[in-house]
Amino acid sequence: MLCRLSHHTRYDFGRPVFLEPHLVRLLPRPDACQRVTALTVDIDPAPVGRSVCQDLYGNAVLSTWFSGLSGHLDIRVTATVETLRANPFDYLIETEACRLPVPLSPAEAQAAAPCLAPLAPPHGRAAALAERLRRDGADTPQSFALALLGWMADNIATVPREEPGLLSPEDLLEAGQGACRDLAVCYLAACRHVGLPARFVSGYHEGDPEREDRDLHAWAEAWLPGGGWRGFDPSLGLAVADRHVAVAAAGDPAEAAPVAGSFRGRAPAPRLSHAIRLTMDTRD
């Protein structure tokens, strides 16, 4: 698939402030599942310096720094991305590692530690859900990832939620509904409880082609021995293939935030607005 996207984010501060350095995590991630063929990032006010770098998690991040005062920060990203993985199951799980918790070498365990850190109480709702799925037969990495995906898609409603932050897995499971980012965090918590490394992903999904306005989307990736990092979208009930475009992934959801930075000065009522346009077509 060929994805063409534009993402406009604007912060209005109400009065001039001094912008501290900002990290922009809105550059599509180059990896085995997608190839970035065109990319532009326009920022107003123009930074006095900018540098594209790779963070600890393999994401492409734009680092920017500024001088002077400004009443706004305007970021426009346009990109063309070729998605490459039509079959989300093109892997073979290593037989000796086909159990939970996933057996890891010392080096793998060290690298995976942020993606195994608990996100929910060890005896809470997410843990109980994970244990129930295991008792029902989902006792291998792939079967657990798929069983959890199906259960959440069937039992948790995905709804818009404008409030900032994340619902805890306990609150989400009690409410029975949440935003896509809330479902992704709950998915991580259940995976980590059984020893399956999992991380948070932000990006885009094809969605309803009849809609012009879009939002950032969130899902999870689980590390499957023999398959590597594989995406699972609990809000859609899908194993991720070529209709998702990943921007950033991290063990801590805060490390995948689209823009990170601060400012100096008084801004009594800063406002954030955004607009996303996305089209996906079969490759020529």
Give a verbal description of the structure.
This protein is of the alpha+beta class. It has 2 domains: 2-84 and 257-281, Immunoglobulin-like, CATH 2.60.40; 95-241, C8orf32 fold. Helices cover 19% and strands 38% of the residues. The chain is built from 5 helices and 16 strands. It has helices spanning 106-112, 125-135, 141-155, 169-175, 180-193, and strands at 2-19, 22-24, 34-44, 49-54, 60-65, 69-83, 157-158, 177-178, 198-205, 217-224, 228-233, 238-239, 244-250, 259-260, 263-264, 271-281. The strands form 4 sheets. Strands 1, 3, 6, 15 and 16 form a 5-stranded antiparallel sheet that branches. Helix 2 (125-135) crosses helix 5 (180-193) and helix 3 packs antiparallel against helix 5. The relative contact order is 0.24. The mean pLDDT is 94.
Tell the overall outline: globular
Count the beta strands: 16
The amount of helix comes to: 10-25%
Structural class: alpha+beta
Uncertain residue ranges = none
Largest sheet: 5 strands, antiparallel
CATH topology of the largest domain: C8orf32 fold
Task: Identify the CATH class of the largest domain.
Answer: Alpha Beta
Cα gyration radius (Å): 20 Å
Average predicted local confidence, pLDDT: 94
Query: What is the name of the CATH architecture of the largest domain?
Result: Roll
Number of helices: 5
Tell me the domain tally.
2
What is the end-to-end distance?
A: 9 Å
| Strand percent estimate | 35-45%
The SSE order reads EEEEEEHHHEHEHEEEEEEEE
